[in-house]
Amino acid sequence: MVAIGAHVDQTDPLAEARARNAPLVQFFLGDPQGYKGPEVRYAGGAAALRADAEAAGVDLYVHAPYIVNVATTNNRIRIPSRKLLQQHVDAAAEIGAKGLIVHGGHVNQADAPEKGFDNWRKAIEATDLKVPLLIENTAGGDNAMTRYLERIAGVWEAISTTEQFDRVGFCLDTCHAHAGGNPLETVVADVRAITGRIDLVHCNDSRDDFDSGADRHANFGAGRIDPDLLAAVVREADAPVVCETPGGAAEHAADFAWLRERL
Length: 263
Known about the structure:
The chain is globular. Helix 4 crosses helix 5 and helix 5 (149-159) runs parallel beside helix 7. By secondary structure, the chain is of the alpha/beta class. It is 40% helix and 14% strand. It has an eight-stranded parallel barrel with strand order 1-2-3-4-5-6-7-10, surrounded by four helices. It has one domain (4-262): Divalent-metal-dependent TIM barrel enzymes (TIM Barrel), CATH 3.20.20. It has helices spanning 13-20, 45-56, 75-94, 113-126, 149-159, 174-179, 187-195, 227-237, 249-262, and strands at residues 4-7, 24-27, 59-63, 99-103, 133-136, 168-173, 200-202, 205-206, 217-218, 241-243. It starts with a strand and ends with a helix.
């Protein structure tokens, strides 16, 4: 059975897991839109969260802030992004997280993609990866590092020379793939051909059409993605699943049931 969980509020992720009867949860540590460092809001702090999660048998995943962009040539963004990435790796390790998910970022319009690939290499070399770093495909932007398969290949080729390459994995988001113009019929095989691995699936329906470039998630069956395709991606990827769909525990439980029925 595929393990299915959800993205939840960070205050008490274990209570959120219980409310959904989920074996795993994903959450932010702090402000997803700010450069302020990570913050563990769980009562008792990082050590208590780690111990309680282990006792409950719940796997924890941390999503890095959206603003992290280690690919850019803009020093005022790239340097704070690297610092923030390391801080979140450290915090994720303290709570015993199974991985830290980070978006691929982008370069400026005038920059060659190769600059972004090389900046990714430098970021991996500069970061002490105490937990697996799972790079996620993104939905929009012509200058994005992980929207298009050829860009993902560029990132992977660049970071493959680093000593910590085995600590880098991939998170496949179904909404992002659909909106980014990557056919879900072949995306699992396409990504695996590049990365050799898929460590986590963000399973989300999309409110928008194929190749729209829009990152707007929908509950299963309420969006524009063929239900059978969503299930096929999860089945083929054979990795833990995080639903980042709208709503709370009731909506997520309904999404879990919807997906399990089709699996």
